[in-house]
Amino acid sequence: MAPTMSKLSAGSRRGGVVRCQASSKGSSPLLNTVVAAPSDVLIPAYCDDTTRTLRRKTRTVTIGNVKVGSEHPVVKQTMLTTDTRDVQATIDEAKRCADAGAEMVRITVQGLREAEAAMEIRNGLFKDGYDTPLIADIHFNPKAALKVADAFEKIRVNPGNYADGRKKFEEITYEDPADYQRELDDIEETFTPLVLKCKEMGRAIRIGTNHGSLSARTLSYFGDTPKGMVESAFEFARICRKHDYHNFVFSMKASNPLVMVQAYRLLASEMYKEGWDYPLHLGVTEAGEGEDGRMKSSIGIGALLLDGLGDTVRVSLTEAPELELAPCAVLTALGEKAVAGYETAVPFEEKMRDFRSYDRREVELPEQREGDSLDYRGICHRDGSVFGSLTVDAAASMSESELYTNLGCKTVVGMPFKDIATVDSIYFTDGGVPPSSNAELRRTFRRLMESNVHVICDEAALTADPMDGAVAVYNLSALDGSAPSLPEGCERFAVRFNGTEDAAAFETLAAMCKSPESRPAVLLAQADTSKGSRMHTMRRAFELVKASGLDVPVVHVALYEDGEVTLDEFVIRTGGEVGGCLVDGLGEGVCVKTDAVPMDDARRISFGLLQGCRMRNTKTEFISCPSCGRTLFDLQEVTAQIASRTGHLPGVSVAIMGCIVNGPGEMADADFGYVGGAPGKVDLYVGKEVVKRAIPNEEACDALIDLIKEYGRWKEPDSEEEEAEAVAA
After folding, report:
1. What is the mean pLDDT of residues 473-489?
2. Model confidence, pTM
C-alpha cells in the first residue's frame, strides 16, 4: 500500500505550479500546461516515510543467482571497460570486479559482433568458477539485444534510443494525437520481441532512462525534465506489463545529482499511484573521477538510500571498474545502518518540503552596522558557505603560514587574503578560543578577521577569555527571547541547534530576528545523531525553521568521531548525509570535520560538496563517463590531461565522453564537450551542437582550449606571484 500524502502548507515559499497532462488512450501525455497550484495542494508520497528510513517495498527480480528487491540486501555492481570482442580481457576484468565485491557486472554490447562474443564470455566465466550475473548494455541496437539474451542474465535498454535511434535534438510538434500514438506503436513493435524472449528465458531487463538521452518525442512534450524521464521509462514498462512480464527494474540517471534525486523520487511517487513495486537501480551517470566523482555519486545515491529507495547501486567513476566497489560498499552500509533505525528518533510530521521542486531558502545574509570594528558581511557567502572546523590545540600546533594554507588563504608579504576557495569563517568546534596568553596566535587570528575570515567560538569561552571581533555561539535552548548580552569585544553572535528542540524554541528565535540587535548572523545545525539519522534530524529542524519564518542562513556542522570514518568514507558520508539535505534546499553551508582528514582536505571536500549540490562553483565542473567497450580513447589519461589544463575555470563545465552514445546524449549539463567520434578522432561540442569534427587525439586538448577562448570563457591560470600582486593592488 502506498503511503499517505502530506499537505503543503500555505506558508511554503516553493513555486506554486503543477503540470496538467491530457492523454490518448489513457496513458500518453499530450499537454504540458503550467497552471497555478492552490496553496493547500497535496504532496504525493515518494517513500514510505520521510521522517525516518524505511525501505520501500519492492518485488523480487531474479537476475541469474542474484535476487534484487526490498527483501534482499542492496546489490553492488559495476561496468567493464574492455573491448567486448576481446573475450579473454573481458573475462579477466570481470573476475577482478567479482573479486572486489561486484555482485553483477555490466558489459557493453554495441553490435552483433559483441553479442556473438557474449556466449564465450559467459561460458569462460562459468569455466573459471564465476557465476556473477552479466548485464548487456544496449543502445540503438534491438537485434544485438535479442542475440545477447541467449547468454547474459540481464539486458539494460535505454528508452531514449532503443527504438528511436540517435538523438538529433529536433523539436517535434504533435498536432494530432494519432501521430504520437503511432510512434508508441513503433516502440512496442520493436521492444516486444525482447520482452517475450526475456520472459521465456527467465532473463531480467533494466529500463534505464538517462537525463540527456531522451527521445525527440519525449523532449517535445517535457524537455530534459524528470517528468520526461519517468514517462520515457513508463512507455517501456507498459509494454512489459501488457505481456505479463514483471522481471524488470528501473533507473533514472543524470549527471546532475539534483535532477537524479528528483527523477527517482518522481518515479517512485508515480509507481505508488499505479500500484507498482518494481525495484530501483541507483546511479549518478558520468560522475567523473576521484574525490569529485565519489562526492557527486554519494550526494545522489546517499540521499535516496536514506529515503529508503534503491535496491541495487553503481558508483560510476572514470577509473578502473573494480575501484567502484569500495564506495559502493560504503553507500550500501550507510543505507543499511539507516534502515536499522533509531529507537529514540524524535517524531515529526513533514509538511513544508516538496520533492517535486528545488528551491533554496530566501535568507538575509549578515549586514554591516554603523560602528562595527570589522566587516561582518563575509561571515557567510551568498552561494553557500564553507566554515573551517578548528581546535585550539590544532591552531597552536601550526605555523602562521601553514594555517593560512589550510584555510585556503593567499598571502602577500605574509598577510592573508581571501581567495575563491578560502573558508568563509572558522568555527572552534572544541568549544575553546585562542588564548589571550598566546599573543602571536591572537595576532594571527586578528589578521584573518581583518581579511574577512571570521572566528566563531562558544560564548562561555569568550566570556572567560574575551577576543575582540569573535562571533559568540549560544545554544538555541538557552535563549529566552531577549537579545543576549555578548561577551566583551563581540559584536555578532550565532545560534546552535541540534534538531531535537521544540517549535517554541524556533518561534522564539524568529521573534528575536525582528530586531537587528537580537538577530544572529548565522545558525549552526549540529545534529544530535543519537536521536535519528543526520538527514532526518535536520529535516525535522528545517520543518520548524520554515514554519517559524526564520530567514537566517543555516550551516550544517557534521563532526565525525575519531576512527568513525576513513578519507573515502568521509567523502561519501558527508555527501549522503549533508548533501541529502542540500539537494532539497535545506541549508546554506557546511562545516565538516574528522581527524582522519587533514584540515586542507576537509576544506576541499567541503567546496566539492557545495559544487556537487549545484550551489557554489570554485573550479571547473567535469562530466566524464566511466569508460566502457565503446570508448574511443583512454578516458582516464585524457580526463587527467584536460583537468590539469582547464581545472581553473569556475563556472565552466566540460564533458569528456568516450563515444557518441555518451556524447550529446549524456552531457546535457555541459558548456563544452570533448567526444570520441572515431578511432583516433575527437569531436568538440558547444552545448548540444557539434562545432568541430575529426580532430586528431594529439591536437584535441589544444583545440578544446581554443574553443573555450573563442566563446569568451577562458582565463589564464595565475601564478602565485601574479595572484599576490593582483590582491595587493
Report:
1. 96
2. 0.90
